[in-house]
Write a structure and sequence with these properties.
By secondary structure, the protein is of the alpha+beta class. It has helices at residues 2-18, 31-44, 54-69, 81-88, 135-149, 156-179, 183-197, 208-225, 228-243, 249-261; strands at residues 93-98, 104-109, 113-118, 121-127. It has a 4-stranded antiparallel sheet.
Amino acid sequence: MRKFITLVIIALAVISVNAQDAATTVVLLKSSTVKKKVDKSDAEIKDPKKSLKTATWMKRGDLFQDVFNIGLEQIQDGMDSKMLTLFYKQPISIENKTLEDGSSQETYVYENMKYVFLNGVMQQWIRVNPFVEDPLSISIEAYNKTLELDEDGKLTDKVKEALISVKVLLKKQGVNAYYTEDYEGALGSFEDVLEINELSLFAGELDTVMVQYSGIISREIAGKTDDKELYLKSIGYYKQLAAAGFGGPNTYLQIKMDYMSLGDT
């Protein structure tokens, strides 16, 4: 199931990225440079005049997308270590480990990131001492503030385009969290996508893949923690899919399974 989730979501992310200008050259972000910009932005939103300008918040939203992308600019699902070092040069160190099933795990350690390879294929990435813990949430807040200040709606299309980009990054973040078995983190990222879709500029867009996997992960966490509220949350997601006519009989089967887990037959 994990691999299936990854393939579906990454495929959607790739489609979205490829829809952008293919000629754009990716520039590796320097952590120190981005941090200086963050410090400047933090000061601007506290300034009585600058904090009332849409440009201040729009730039902040874009900036915190950059914060998230540090160390991920050229990362692709399934890439090998040679491709990694081609873009990011040699790591500070390489940690080798043989897993119980005999698989070979290599962790390439850099100043701000660790990249984990399983049998030569990248499996996940781990941030090292990030200077911002949740940059995408800050980015979303900044774009929402832009919409609030943009009374004449001149920036609506620009903000919508930026939030579409944020949704791609949230899916990427969620997939990585799922790989590291941080199911709560994965669920949070996918639910953030659903929350963005509830904004008026998306006209209640229903991302059936995100709804479906939010339901799946809610159930996974519930199964590990016996949290009945999460079973109810899973049921809610599958009822959304049923109302949209998505998934056919299987959707109703999933709802029944969750009710059975609650002891309600």
